[in-house]
Amino acid sequence: MTAAIADVDEPRVTEVARSLDEREARIARAWEVLASVLDPEVPVVSVCDLGIVRDVAIEGESLAVVLTPTYSGCPATEVIEAGVRAALDDAGLGPVKVRLQRAPAWTTDWISAEGRRKLREYGIAPPGPADPDQGVAMRFVPNRGAVRLRCPRCNSEHTERLSAFGSTACKALHRCRACGEPFEHFKPI
Amino acid sequence: MQASIEVSRDPAVRYLLRIGDTCLIQAQRLAEWCGHAPILEEDIAMTNMALDLVGQSRAVLTRAGALEAELGGAAHDEDQLAFLRDERDFLNPTVVELPRGDFAITVLRNFALATFLKLLWERLLGSSDAELAGIAGKALKEARYHQQHAGDWVLRLGGGTDESARRLRAAVDVLWPYIPELFEADEIDDHARAIGLGPRWSELADGWQAEVLPVLDEAGVAPPAARAFRSTGKKGVHSEHMGYILAEMQHLQRSHPGGVW
């Protein structure tokens, strides 16, 4: 009786196991490929470094990738979506489905240690912890120049903020008073 | 010439349109400063805030158009809702459509609006509509940053030169008659409250005053006495300025339907 069941089921069990292995391999390969898809505005950090790839799974025949947008109006969102799709298709991992998921909202806390290192090397001061003041009543001051950040070029703390907004939605503009160079800061949100 | 679309009269759809239109028209006014701001940093700041607001508007209008279909009507996408609605179908409060004026008017309106939107997004985090709650989670962070920036500037203008203080006082006189409309609730608010979509806007009044009035006080500005006048943009009855905004915003899609670049 036992032998009979084994005779019948063994090929099927093997097939299921092989199929599971293939799914795992496809997902693992997808994460590798995604680690090479760079942010179009900051082309040293990948979409994985930024923490915007929330999930990779197999849905039916498709590889389903869940992305979380960084800012509501970020024009890079659509470019990133297209880049992710193209990279996975080129790697033969398609068909690909990309889904945008808003909740939970993206935070700079999701940027990896590796991503922060790459930002600093690129000349952008990485973000500190997001919203440390959340829940605290907001204070307003007529001049907010003295937000002390470490200069990503010379490491001096003798810096000042020039502008609360910068070249993209995610950055502010600062200047180092020691080396004289302007630099960008990835705003913590 | 592309004809206008027929928009659902459902109160939940209209509640969403009020939010999306407030963000959209405020964005349009802020974006007018591109290339005209008094300093480069503010040029960048105002266009960045406009970009966040356009993004928020796109998301909310998309949800409104999808809800129209869920309720059995015709679905509309964000572009159709932005570019193919008539003036009477835009439901933003009048204050956002007033001309951009000088820098003081822009700063003060931005402070008033960012504070309002921050309080609204906070409440929408708990919306029964999962998509709206998701939009609020992101938009709240952005509104906080806008409020911080604009509030700093209110103090800077109030405590700056005689001229900057004079302009800030003049700005309060221009804008304040349009503020009460923000906090007037009607049957659209009641419906949104009943189904858990969002708060009555009247519920935000106390929180708004608690955050805005101390800053005005510190800036040395006193709001004018309350008047009987009420603006009615939220009901689709707009000031004479609204038509000009829509003419500029819509003419490309109206003249070249479906045009893209």
Describe the structure in your own words:
The complex is a heterodimer of chains A (189) and B (261). Chain A has three helices and seven strands. Chain A is α/β, with parallel strands linked by helices and 189 residues long. Chain A folds into two domains: 2-106, GMP Synthetase, Chain A, domain 3 (2-Layer Sandwich), CATH 3.30.300; 121-186, no CATH class. The radius of gyration of chain A is 23 Å and the shape is elongated. The N and C termini of chain A lie far apart (63 Å). The model of chain A has no long low-confidence stretch (mean pLDDT 88). Chain B has one domain (11-254): Up-down Bundle (Ferritin). Chain B has nine helices and no strands. In chain B, α4 (103-124) runs antiparallel to α5. The model of chain B has no long low-confidence stretch (mean pLDDT 96). Chain A binds chain B through residues 69, 71-75, 101-107, 131, 138, 140-144, 162-167, 169, 173, 187, 189, and chain B through 40-41, 44-45, 48-49, 51-56, 58-59, 130-131, 133-135, 137-142, 144-145, 147-149, 151-152, 154-156, 159-160, 211, 215, 218.
| CATH architecture label name of the largest domain in chain A | 2-Layer Sandwich
Shape of chain A: elongated
The rounded Rg of chain A comes to 23 Å
Strand content of chain A: 15-25%
Quickly give the structural class of chain A: alpha/beta
Write the layout of secondary structure elements.
The complex is a heterodimer of chains A (189) and B (261).
Chain A: H1 2-34, E1 53-59, E2 62-67, H2 76-90, E3 96-100, H3 113-122, E4 124-125, E5 159-163, E6 171-176, E7 182-186
Parallel strand pairs in A: 2-3, 4-7
Antiparallel strand pairs in A: 1-2, 5-6, 6-7
Chain B: H1 11-31, H2 40-70, H3 78-83, H4 103-124, H5 130-158, H6 162-175, H7 187-194, H8 205-218, H9 242-255
